[in-house]
Write a structure and sequence with these properties.
Blueprint (H helix, E strand, L loop, with lengths): L9 E6 L3 H13 L4 E6 L2 H8 L16 E4 L8 H10 L8 E5 L4 H9 L4 E4 L4 H21 L1
Parallel strand pairs: 1-2, 1-3, 3-4, 4-5
Helix pairs in contact: 1-5, 2-3
Length: 149
């Protein structure tokens, strides 16, 4: 159940090490007028620091808990599956939906994500138009239907 005050935007944590992919996600959400605040970090360690509000993200006012996490699989420092495990083992974080957003079509990766309780596993299309369509559908489902049902 969405317990946000009326008018408050969704907070999305985007964990993506590829700058071009991050820009596409952010731009796609902006173009589709999805009301949100996107926090972008580029590695697994920064993601965990943000989520556990430590280091650069120790101030809870500057690093509020996200409503949705978009998590790449192959990340520097700490990989996406390990980040996912940490999220789903924490009492406060495990309720946040996590969408694995990756280029990996490897069955072992997909199964590893679901074994760690990912909410969804999406493979990034290589074609620009299909990537934009995926982001549109993702925003519509997770930020529209899922939170307003």
């Amino acid at each position: 159940m969405d317990k946000r005050p009326v008018g408050e935007s969704f907070i999305i944590l985007l964990v993506e090490d590829e700058p071009a992919h991050a820009r596409l996600v952010i731009r796609s959400f902006e173009e589709h007028r999805i009301s949100n605040r996107i926090v972008h970090v580029s590695d697994g360690e920064a993601a965990l620091d943000y989520l556990f509000q430590r280091g650069l993200y120790a101030n809870p006012e500057d690093s509020p808990r996200p409503h949705l996490i978009l998590l790449d699989l192959h990340l520097p420092r700490i990989d996406g599956l390990e980040v996912l495990s940490e999220i789903k083992q924490d009492v406060k974080l495990k309720q946040i939906p996590v969408v694995m957003l990756t280029t990996s079509r490897v069955e072992r990766d997909r199964m590893g994500a679901y074994e760690r309780y990912v909410n969804s596993y999406l493979v990034k299309p290589l074609e620009f138009d299909q990537f934009i369509k995926l982001m549109d559908d993702l925003g519509f489902y997770w930020l529209g239907w899922n939170f307003h049902s």
